[in-house]
Write a structure and sequence with these properties.
By secondary structure, the chain is mainly alpha-helical. It has a two-stranded antiparallel sheet with strand order 1-2. Strand 1 and strand 2 form a beta hairpin. The N and C termini lie far apart (103 Å).
Length: 132
């Protein structure tokens, strides 16, 4: 495998290229740019940093932050309503699971899938009473 030399990589980044935009009908040059890979990387990195900065500023300095969930902002009343609804749904889920289990067990009993327990065969410990 060929090793990349740091000097050749730097030279490749500094090689100059020409970007020409031409009119298709007349083949006249409309715009031309002299670019290098390094200048393109710097330009794209700058655009990325500026866009990230603008988005962060938009979220920090405008009321949009109130609409983002999980940011900690919002109305106290809405938060309390959310917590109350969360508790209510949790309790409803528990009730629903208990009722489902009850209906499954009832269905088994009605079908006869559960063996009948014979209480006559139970061996109970004998208790001796002391007479006075």
């Amino acid at each position: 495998m060929a090793k990349l030399d740091a000097n050749s990589t730097l030279k490749r980044l500094q090689n100059r290229y020409r970007l020409v935009v031409m009119n298709e009908d007349t083949y006249e040059e409309v715009v031309k740019f002299k670019l290098s890979r390094l200048s393109v990387y710097i330009f794209l990195s700058t655009v990325f940093v500026v866009l990230v900065g603008l988005i962060i500023a938009l979220l920090v300095f405008t009321p949009l932050k109130y609409y983002l969930p999980g940011t900690g902002y919002g109305n106290i009343k809405q938060r309390r309503q959310f917590e109350a609804l969360t508790y209510k749904t949790d309790s409803l889920e528990k009730v629903l699971t208990f009722k489902e289990q009850y209906y499954k067990d009832l269905h088994k009993v009605l079908k006869g899938d559960i063996p009948v327990l014979d209480t006559n065969k139970l061996e109970l410990p004998k208790v001796e009473y002391m007479k006075e």
